[in-house]
């Protein structure tokens, strides 16, 4: 639940208070009546202090107020509590801005087995329906040096032979713990697309010099952990660098490799029941957190979800208004899944005017799983040639975003905002395929065209002398 931001609620349990001096007795009475066993803020006190500093700087930079993530709390209740009644009582109070049951954690998208395709064609030039990331092999300015990428992910295997990482990349700090119920192949596949080492075997990442990290959306707790992606993103925004600054800096990228539970009624879902997953930012706390991260100068790339439906569906309505309307834009780059051959929307991909860009949603060659190659009994030698979904599209678009920010950094330019990067990639991208023109997922990035346009705007030397 979220307290009214005007109250500036802080603390927990007996220390719960409004920094503005407002009383909270009515809220406490409702929670007591329903037997609440714990009231836990999204963030610990030291993280809130860092977040308030980062938020103040972000508001100054943005020239506008941004959500107060410290106003979000989690309430633990006895089994069998009538949550609808509790929600109604809480939201009737002026002290509470929003309350909903914690959503169930959906599984990562199941992996299908499409037709096999040429290895890593999604990085080939535009004429081959790729994004042109192969040029990063020719110019060190494009490889992500100095840029952080944080993947919101259940679990991953940092020890894969083509990643060569370790658990120091986990920035959940024991507060957000990896969930192992779905395995680690999904996260391993995403990391492989981004930063797999160029070592003469396996695959190569699009931006191999970037610093990659992971954080789980599962918050540790007693007796059971909870799926709280909004809290994880709040923690990420508040996380310090150990030297008094923020861990995330302008130009860094957060990739949301999660989707929300079904919102669309089963009668409107063109596939099996309860599989029309929503974009993650349908969750209000996630939407708030994205606004904060974006205001901090961080680029948020959000996978659009494998929900078979439009974000303009009437089910995506809150308080009588469409959630994905332009004046409620979270600030993220929302990514759909396109065909590997003609950039048409794949049937499972969510779509709608809110979507910005597409990546391949099929035939993706990367680390993890075992459909392409693996050595029996060796977890670190798995490779796939059929990674798919908006999950596979997200790292492709993230690669394009990091390449742009990497080039700006290398040429001494300040990082661009998410909107600036999105506008550049959309204006220079390859148009969506004609097979699904009314089901908008946006163009596929074309890095060669984007960099040429960027150079012209910055009046710098030509990036590549030919080609």
From TrEMBL:
Top-level division of the source organism's lineage: Bacteria
Domain Peptidase S8/S53: 181-442
GO BP annotations listed: proteolysis
Molecular functions per Gene Ontology: serine-type endopeptidase activity
InterPro entries reported in the protein's UniProt record: Peptidase_S8/S53_dom, Peptidase_S8/S53_dom_sf
Stretches assigned to coiled coil: none
Entry protein name: S8 family serine peptidase
Species for this entry: Natronosporangium hydrolyticum
